[in-house]
């Protein structure tokens, strides 16, 4: 290569280098400008929603609970080895009311006819709708229940009587006439009353229950179970008036005019004869057999016994009562001691 050619090549390389430097310098300025703009937007204090949000304290909807707030109910614990006495009943459920602990069960979910135990639901639906001092008119005589002995309050068509007194007639002598009077005067009539009975049964989680009438007449769509009726009895006893009525052996009450008196006696033969019995309801038809729900309170503990389709409801219930209180003790879960 001659000197002239070498000089020319150096000149060409120098020009290319000079051009590349200008290109890099130009783009460096652009890159630097972009970095400055990005830093401005990132670091400049903007009007952010989370920066300007004012948060005020609101107390929780559910109050925080300390352990001391919760006091578990005494728990029934079996202490004896004696089995439950034999009964002719097809279904039996014994429950501790306060703790809801089942203490003995035989076919608890079997669907059977509840007979006049139905009237506990009749009472609950009536109490949901009527005021106690409201006066209702008797519109018809109650049809008899096949196989059931006379269960009437003694009403006549045209009688005017308060809801409070009708409830006494419903639950003490198990008056069919009182039941129909409460149902007939309901808004929408007896059909709507029965609808409300079934609606309430669902609310109480009575999964094996269907009502077809307000008195307990046997029918293909009228049934319940011992477990469901135990739930019904527990709910009924929460009402002070029902609890008072079912514990009443007998009473005389008048109509709205005060000229007519109805004398009633409780069908439940255990009242006043077995210590601690204070309710709840009897029932009987040819198909249902002898039925009885018993509420028994001893030493501060209350149990509910449901006996369905028995041949000796009073005698067998009395045996079950003595067996429970002779073979169970109640234990305080916080201390482990008997109460």
Structure report:
- The protein has 339 residues and is an alpha+beta fold.
- The chain has one domain: Beta-lactamase (3-Layer(aba) Sandwich), CATH 3.40.710.10.
- Helices cover 36% and strands 19% of the residues.
- It contains nine helices and eleven strands.
- It has a five-stranded antiparallel β-sheet, with helices on both faces. Strands 1-11 form a two-stranded antiparallel sheet.
- A hairpin with a 5-residue loop joins strand 2 and strand 3.
- Helix 4 packs antiparallel against helix 5.
- The longest helix is centred in the first third of the chain and has 41 residues.
- The model has no long low-confidence stretch (mean pLDDT 86).
* Average pLDDT rating: 86
Give the radius of gyration. 40 Å
If helices are DSSP runs of H or I spanning 4 or more residues, what is the number of helices? Answer: 9
What share of residues are in beta strands? 15-25%
Short recap of the structure:
The protein is α+β, with helices and mostly antiparallel strands. It has helices at 3-43, 49-52, 119-129, 163-171, 176-184, 189-203, 226-237, 240-246, 313-327, and strands spanning 75-78, 91-96, 102-106, 135-137, 160-162, 250-254, 261-265, 277-285, 289-298, 301-310, 328-331. Helices cover 36% and strands 19% of the residues.
